[in-house]
Amino acid sequence: MFFLHERGVKMSIYTFFLAAGSSTGPIINGWVGQKLSLEWFWWLCAIATGVNFLAAFFFLPESSYVRDFFVDPEEGLHPIRRDSTSPPRKLDSGPGMTFWKIISFKAPPQPTSALPKVFFRPFPFIAVPAVFWAVIIYGNILAWVVAADVQKSVFFPQPPYLFSLGITGTTSVASILGIACGALSGGYICDLVAARYTRRNNGIHEPEHRLPALIPAAIASPMGCIIFGMCFYHSTVWVGPVAGMFFINFAIACGPNVALTYVVDAYLPWAGEAMVTVNALKNLVAFGMSYGAIPWLQSAGWDKMWGAACGISAAVMISSLPVYFFGKSARQMTGGWGFLKM
């Protein structure tokens, strides 16, 4: 139970770095563009990508291997061999993982003939109601984060603000602060909420116990959209749009974190495939919004575009209610689906 209620915190670390990375980039990009040149920005991207590749090559061990042990739920994380009939006992500690074991090449755990099945296995998961719901929750909030980032980079340098490239990029500090607060809400607080509901349910945990932790994101996302759009519409002091960015980015760390943790709780044996599906499809939403944010704004105006964003965001978040009330029935329905056992 301890590790179950730590899952939200662990997922929030992943969500924080995933979201904060895209908000740190504009800060660096703005000052590099102002102090150096656009060409230097791309040189820095090439250098960072190279360093990341080398670090991944040398320091990330292969984690997709066939395990010979299972976890005894009454003995914490103590491993017992699958074919063992003896009572649990502590195993002698060996040399453990070494650097040379990490970088050594071994035969793949899956036969070559199984690789196509492994590749295509995540795609059918979009038909799973919980996964589809997580996609629209994540994609909905991410769309407004992308739209706000694209639009502020275009309009903060224009009157009445006349921000330099460096100052425009620095406004993303508000986004990072929002992400940090959202990660705390969607991680630690989500675990507390799940623990409380589990105690009230006689110690039986259900994945739906996490969903009330979505309430802060359901409030912050529409509120951030309307603040951001209307403050630009009325040309308020720069604090207004930046406050809107804070709330939208709070939601991007809180809402998707709760949704992803719910999916992992509900479909733990297939968590990897489900996570791939969610991340691939939410990136398609971000790609589309990066193209459509400015044309939509030019055709509708600040008030209509972001008013619609507020309504869409609220409607999508309200879709969590059927998941809360009928999520268990949906999980029971999908439990017999064949493709989940591929």
Q: Indicate the CATH class.
A: Mainly Alpha
Bulk shape = globular
User: How many helices?
Assistant: 11
* Biggest beta sheet summary: 2 strands, antiparallel
What is the number of domains?
1
Any idea what the radius of gyration is?
23 Å
Could you name the ranges where pLDDT drops below 50 across 5 or more consecutive residues?
Answer: 67-93
Task: Please bin the fraction of helical residues.
Answer: 55-70%
Straight-line distance between termini: 28 Å
The H/E string reads HHEEHHHHHHHHH
Number of strands: 2
In order across it, which strands form the biggest sheet? 1-2
Summarize it:
The chain is mainly α. Helices cover 68% and strands 2% of the residues. It has a single domain, classed as Growth Hormone, Chain: A.
